Amino acid sequence: MCVLFFFFFLTRGLMPRTLDSQITLEKTPSYFVTREAPHRISSMSHDTKLIVVVRNPVTRAISDYTQTLSKKPDIPTFEELAFRNRSLGLVDTSWNAIRIGMYILHLENWLQYFRLSQMHFVSGERLITDPAGEMGRVQDFLGLKRIITDKHFYFNRTKGFPCLKKPESSSQPRCLGKSKGRTHVQIEQEVIEQLQEFYRPFNIKFYETVGQDFRWDSM
Ligand SMILES: *[C@@H]1O[C@H](CO)[C@@H](O)[C@H](O)[C@H]1NC(C)=O
Ligand SMILES: *[C@@H]1O[C@H](CO)[C@@H](O)[C@H](O)[C@H]1NC(C)=O
Question: Residue span of the signal peptide, if any (predicted)?
Fold first, then answer.
Protein backbone atom coordinates (compact mmCIF):
# COMPACT_ATOMS: atom_id res chain seq x y z
CA MET A 1 0.00 0.00 0.00
CA CYS A 2 1.56 3.19 -1.13
CA VAL A 3 1.23 6.13 -3.37
CA LEU A 4 3.15 4.21 -5.99
CA PHE A 5 2.98 4.65 -9.78
CA PHE A 6 -0.08 6.61 -9.20
CA PHE A 7 1.61 9.76 -8.15
CA PHE A 8 4.40 8.94 -10.40
CA PHE A 9 2.43 10.14 -13.34
CA LEU A 10 0.35 12.67 -11.46
CA THR A 11 3.44 14.73 -10.96
CA ARG A 12 4.52 14.39 -14.54
CA GLY A 13 2.68 17.12 -16.25
CA LEU A 14 -0.96 16.17 -15.84
CA MET A 15 -1.46 18.01 -12.60
CA PRO A 16 -1.14 21.71 -12.03
CA ARG A 17 2.46 22.60 -11.27
CA THR A 18 1.63 24.00 -7.85
CA LEU A 19 0.52 20.63 -6.69
CA ASP A 20 3.94 19.08 -7.09
CA SER A 21 5.38 20.63 -3.98
CA GLN A 22 2.52 19.38 -1.86
CA ILE A 23 2.76 15.80 -2.89
CA THR A 24 5.12 13.43 -1.24
CA LEU A 25 5.95 10.54 -3.39
CA GLU A 26 6.27 7.22 -1.72
CA LYS A 27 6.76 4.46 -4.18
CA THR A 28 7.29 1.62 -1.79
CA PRO A 29 4.82 0.45 0.81
CA SER A 30 7.47 0.30 3.49
CA TYR A 31 6.86 3.81 4.72
CA PHE A 32 3.19 3.25 5.33
CA VAL A 33 3.93 0.27 7.51
CA THR A 34 6.74 1.86 9.48
CA ARG A 35 5.68 2.28 13.08
CA GLU A 36 7.21 5.71 13.56
CA ALA A 37 6.00 7.19 10.26
CA PRO A 38 2.60 8.57 11.37
CA HIS A 39 4.07 10.40 14.32
CA ARG A 40 6.94 11.77 12.27
CA ILE A 41 4.67 13.04 9.51
CA SER A 42 2.06 14.50 11.83
CA SER A 43 4.72 16.46 13.66
CA MET A 44 5.76 18.01 10.35
CA SER A 45 2.33 18.87 9.09
CA HIS A 46 -1.11 18.34 10.57
CA ASP A 47 -3.07 18.78 7.38
CA THR A 48 -1.30 16.15 5.34
CA LYS A 49 -3.48 14.16 3.01
CA LEU A 50 -2.70 10.54 2.56
CA ILE A 51 -3.52 8.56 -0.50
CA VAL A 52 -3.02 4.87 -0.23
CA VAL A 53 -3.40 2.29 -2.95
CA VAL A 54 -4.56 -1.01 -1.55
CA ARG A 55 -5.29 -4.27 -3.24
CA ASN A 56 -6.16 -7.81 -2.33
CA PRO A 57 -3.50 -8.64 0.27
CA VAL A 58 -3.05 -12.19 -1.09
CA THR A 59 -2.36 -10.95 -4.62
CA ARG A 60 -0.16 -8.28 -3.10
CA ALA A 61 1.91 -10.81 -1.15
CA ILE A 62 2.40 -13.03 -4.20
CA SER A 63 3.39 -10.10 -6.35
CA ASP A 64 5.76 -8.90 -3.64
CA TYR A 65 7.35 -12.35 -3.50
CA THR A 66 7.60 -12.54 -7.31
CA GLN A 67 9.44 -9.26 -7.35
CA THR A 68 11.89 -10.35 -4.65
CA LEU A 69 12.40 -13.69 -6.39
CA SER A 70 13.41 -11.96 -9.61
CA LYS A 71 16.24 -10.28 -7.71
CA LYS A 72 17.14 -13.13 -5.35
CA PRO A 73 16.38 -16.44 -7.07
CA ASP A 74 17.67 -18.46 -4.10
CA ILE A 75 15.04 -17.54 -1.54
CA PRO A 76 12.76 -20.27 -0.13
CA THR A 77 9.41 -20.98 -1.76
CA PHE A 78 6.42 -18.75 -1.14
CA GLU A 79 4.77 -21.45 0.96
CA GLU A 80 7.85 -21.87 3.14
CA LEU A 81 7.96 -18.17 3.87
CA ALA A 82 4.24 -17.63 4.27
CA PHE A 83 3.58 -20.28 6.90
CA ARG A 84 5.08 -21.12 10.22
CA ASN A 85 3.20 -24.37 10.04
CA ARG A 86 1.12 -24.88 6.97
CA SER A 87 -0.82 -27.92 8.10
CA LEU A 88 -1.92 -25.95 11.13
CA GLY A 89 -2.65 -22.95 8.91
CA LEU A 90 -0.22 -20.87 10.98
CA VAL A 91 0.69 -17.86 8.88
CA ASP A 92 4.02 -16.17 9.47
CA THR A 93 2.96 -12.62 10.23
CA SER A 94 6.55 -11.54 10.73
CA TRP A 95 7.20 -11.93 7.02
CA ASN A 96 6.88 -8.49 5.46
CA ALA A 97 5.08 -9.71 2.36
CA ILE A 98 2.32 -10.97 4.68
CA ARG A 99 2.44 -8.20 7.25
CA ILE A 100 2.08 -5.30 4.80
CA GLY A 101 -1.31 -6.65 3.68
CA MET A 102 -2.69 -6.53 7.23
CA TYR A 103 -3.87 -3.04 6.35
CA ILE A 104 -6.02 -2.48 9.40
CA LEU A 105 -3.05 -2.73 11.74
CA HIS A 106 -1.16 -0.02 9.87
CA LEU A 107 -4.28 2.09 9.54
CA GLU A 108 -4.88 1.96 13.29
CA ASN A 109 -1.37 3.22 13.78
CA TRP A 110 -2.03 6.17 11.44
CA LEU A 111 -5.38 6.89 13.05
CA GLN A 112 -3.60 7.77 16.27
CA TYR A 113 -2.27 10.86 14.53
CA PHE A 114 -4.55 11.52 11.56
CA ARG A 115 -8.27 11.75 10.97
CA LEU A 116 -9.85 9.32 8.57
CA SER A 117 -11.01 12.30 6.51
CA GLN A 118 -7.38 13.06 5.73
CA MET A 119 -7.01 9.70 4.05
CA HIS A 120 -8.16 8.38 0.74
CA PHE A 121 -7.97 4.75 -0.23
CA VAL A 122 -7.66 3.77 -3.84
CA SER A 123 -8.70 0.30 -4.88
CA GLY A 124 -5.86 -1.22 -6.86
CA GLU A 125 -8.37 -3.48 -8.62
CA ARG A 126 -10.68 -0.64 -9.67
CA LEU A 127 -7.70 1.40 -10.76
CA ILE A 128 -7.26 -1.20 -13.50
CA THR A 129 -10.92 -1.68 -14.41
CA ASP A 130 -12.01 1.95 -14.07
CA PRO A 131 -8.94 4.18 -13.96
CA ALA A 132 -10.82 7.38 -14.76
CA GLY A 133 -13.36 6.74 -12.00
CA GLU A 134 -10.68 6.06 -9.39
CA MET A 135 -8.71 9.07 -10.53
CA GLY A 136 -11.86 11.15 -10.37
CA ARG A 137 -12.32 10.26 -6.72
CA VAL A 138 -8.68 11.09 -5.98
CA GLN A 139 -9.08 14.49 -7.59
CA ASP A 140 -12.28 15.11 -5.62
CA PHE A 141 -10.47 14.17 -2.43
CA LEU A 142 -7.68 16.60 -3.23
CA GLY A 143 -10.24 19.29 -4.03
CA LEU A 144 -9.17 19.49 -7.65
CA LYS A 145 -11.19 19.78 -10.77
CA ARG A 146 -11.52 16.46 -12.54
CA ILE A 147 -8.78 17.10 -15.07
CA ILE A 148 -7.97 13.47 -15.63
CA THR A 149 -10.87 11.68 -17.26
CA ASP A 150 -11.68 8.79 -19.57
CA LYS A 151 -10.11 10.46 -22.53
CA HIS A 152 -6.69 10.29 -20.91
CA PHE A 153 -6.65 6.51 -20.86
CA TYR A 154 -6.63 3.71 -23.36
CA PHE A 155 -6.61 0.02 -22.68
CA ASN A 156 -3.57 -1.88 -23.96
CA ARG A 157 -4.79 -5.43 -24.53
CA THR A 158 -1.32 -6.86 -24.90
CA LYS A 159 -0.32 -5.52 -21.54
CA GLY A 160 -3.73 -6.11 -20.00
CA PHE A 161 -3.63 -2.70 -18.32
CA PRO A 162 -4.93 0.75 -18.97
CA CYS A 163 -2.28 3.23 -20.05
CA LEU A 164 -2.14 6.95 -20.09
CA LYS A 165 -2.29 8.54 -23.50
CA LYS A 166 1.18 9.66 -24.26
CA PRO A 167 2.10 12.96 -22.70
CA GLU A 168 4.13 14.95 -25.24
CA SER A 169 7.17 15.04 -23.00
CA SER A 170 7.54 11.32 -22.53
CA SER A 171 8.37 8.64 -25.05
CA GLN A 172 7.19 5.67 -23.01
CA PRO A 173 3.47 5.29 -22.34
CA ARG A 174 2.76 4.97 -18.62
CA CYS A 175 0.58 2.06 -17.74
CA LEU A 176 -1.16 1.10 -14.54
CA GLY A 177 0.65 -2.14 -14.14
CA LYS A 178 3.70 -4.01 -15.23
CA SER A 179 3.70 -5.74 -18.57
CA LYS A 180 3.17 -9.46 -18.60
CA GLY A 181 6.87 -10.02 -19.16
CA ARG A 182 7.47 -11.06 -15.59
CA THR A 183 6.68 -14.69 -14.95
CA HIS A 184 4.26 -15.13 -12.11
CA VAL A 185 4.94 -17.80 -9.55
CA GLN A 186 2.40 -20.58 -9.52
CA ILE A 187 0.83 -20.80 -6.09
CA GLU A 188 -1.46 -23.69 -5.18
CA GLN A 189 -5.10 -22.73 -4.99
CA GLU A 190 -5.25 -24.22 -1.50
CA VAL A 191 -2.50 -21.88 -0.29
CA ILE A 192 -4.36 -18.93 -1.75
CA GLU A 193 -7.51 -20.00 0.05
CA GLN A 194 -5.66 -20.44 3.34
CA LEU A 195 -4.31 -16.92 3.02
CA GLN A 196 -7.70 -15.50 2.02
CA GLU A 197 -9.04 -17.10 5.15
CA PHE A 198 -6.25 -15.63 7.24
CA TYR A 199 -6.78 -12.11 5.89
CA ARG A 200 -10.58 -12.14 6.05
CA PRO A 201 -11.00 -10.76 9.59
CA PHE A 202 -8.37 -8.10 8.98
CA ASN A 203 -10.01 -7.14 5.68
CA ILE A 204 -13.46 -6.91 7.24
CA LYS A 205 -12.22 -4.69 10.04
CA PHE A 206 -10.45 -2.57 7.44
CA TYR A 207 -13.65 -2.17 5.32
CA GLU A 208 -15.58 -1.19 8.44
CA THR A 209 -13.02 1.36 9.54
CA VAL A 210 -12.62 2.92 6.10
CA GLY A 211 -16.32 2.66 5.27
CA GLN A 212 -15.65 1.02 1.93
CA ASP A 213 -15.93 -2.58 0.82
CA PHE A 214 -12.99 -3.47 -1.41
CA ARG A 215 -14.60 -6.83 -2.24
CA TRP A 216 -11.47 -8.90 -1.74
CA ASP A 217 -13.55 -11.43 0.10
CA SER A 218 -16.07 -11.96 -2.63
CA MET A 219 -13.59 -12.57 -5.43
C1 LIG B 1 3.15 -28.60 12.31
O2 LIG B 1 2.24 -29.00 13.27
C3 LIG B 1 2.02 -30.39 13.31
C4 LIG B 1 0.89 -30.67 14.28
O5 LIG B 1 1.12 -30.03 15.53
C6 LIG B 1 3.32 -31.08 13.72
O7 LIG B 1 3.13 -32.46 13.75
C8 LIG B 1 4.39 -30.72 12.72
O9 LIG B 1 5.63 -31.25 13.11
C10 LIG B 1 4.52 -29.20 12.58
N11 LIG B 1 5.41 -28.90 11.50
C12 LIG B 1 6.43 -28.06 11.63
C13 LIG B 1 7.25 -27.82 10.41
O14 LIG B 1 6.68 -27.47 12.68
C1 LIG C 1 0.92 -2.23 -25.72
O2 LIG C 1 1.83 -2.99 -24.98
C3 LIG C 1 2.74 -3.73 -25.76
C4 LIG C 1 3.52 -4.65 -24.84
O5 LIG C 1 4.20 -3.93 -23.87
C6 LIG C 1 3.60 -2.78 -26.58
O7 LIG C 1 4.52 -3.50 -27.35
C8 LIG C 1 2.71 -1.92 -27.44
O9 LIG C 1 3.48 -0.96 -28.12
C10 LIG C 1 1.63 -1.24 -26.62
N11 LIG C 1 0.67 -0.60 -27.50
C12 LIG C 1 0.30 0.65 -27.33
C13 LIG C 1 -0.69 1.18 -28.30
O14 LIG C 1 0.73 1.33 -26.41
Answer: 1-16
